[in-house]
Amino acid sequence: MSLKVGSVIVKQLPDRVNMEHGRLFLRELERNQVERPCIVFDCSQILRMDRPAIQLLLDCLEDAMKRNGDLKLAAIPEEAKAILKRIGVDRLFEVFDTSADAVSSYHPLPLHAAWHGVAPADTHQTIENAA
Hints:
Elements: E1 2-5, E2 8-12, H1 19-31, E3 38-42, H2 51-66, E4 70-74, H3 78-87, E5 95-96, H4 99-105, H5 111-115, H6 121-130
Parallel strand pairs: 2-3, 3-4, 4-5
Antiparallel strand pairs: 1-2
């Protein structure tokens, strides 16, 4: 399943990923020939983080980076997270607890808002204390 939220593409990974899934996902992402793609993979349904799943993540990240974009992961089950960490792949991705958190990370506070004194409440407190 694929969902477009603003300019962010959210893809639900299936419970099991095989080489055919990998080719289909990659083809679908390549069809979206947008500059600077913003992609979130919702991993909440994945049962095993095995070689085909990891290869899919790496191939899709490579494709996004070739177009100056990024791929973020969301809702990774603890066992899958541990496997990514054990092989060192976790350092290549930003990982979020929910897809909504990952999507919102692509939309940070606008720079002009910071220049005009608009900041989140906790940041504003820090700025006042520094003065």
